[in-house]
Give the backbone structure.
Amino acid sequence: MSFQAEQILASMALYILPFARLSGFLMTLSVLGSRNIPARFRLLLALAITVVVVPVIPAADSVDLFSAKSFILIVEQTLIGITLGFVSRLMLETFVIGAQITAMQSGLGFASLVDPSNGTSVPALGQFFLMLTTLMFISVDGHLVMIRIVVESFTSFPIGSSYNVTEMFFELVRWARWIFAAALLMALVSIASLLIVNISFGVMTRAAPQINVFAVGFPLTMVTGLILVWLTLSFFLPHFEAQLSRASSLACSLVKLQC
């Protein structure tokens, strides 16, 4: 059995273009795209998914593997995958922002640690919410849902379709307002309660100036913040489900998929 060079290159092009979209997606996907996951594992996972999905997706037009058009298509598919994976990253960062707002208002922002996935220093409360949302994201198979969206995008948004970078970018930016809206909504109870506590200390300082408000108010504010975090955890799941639904809808709309 002999193979010609043209047949080998055509087969490689058939797999490389879907592999570019999947590898870009896994590079930015939450959990799998973190620094804790080795790049070799993500590469092998993208390769395994590519081998499985290529026989069931629409075949792309034949293109010369070593040409300018092929290079442009590879870059285009990688950008599409990166955009879809970045949606899940934005969804989890919503709760980190909400936790940071609460931490700064209650004085818990002084307790900070290094985020191993991003390599930045974040408040401990924000890291707690990030771990909580990550576990919930995995428990509801959010990563599998995102992978399914990417696989089905090869049918709704096949390789070689017109790709408007500006429109996709602005749609992603417009959706980013939900990050701050959902984060503020999640932290609104804590903000209002801590505002009442601070006003009470202000009235107390005016009534009894000899009281050291920093020695009394700071510990009490921190304890109040911890109690509020504990009380608001029961409403955490509805916020997570709503934001996950919005993120899934955005990912579907980016690749013209009906969800």
Observations:
- The CA atoms of residues 106 and 225 lie 5 Å apart.
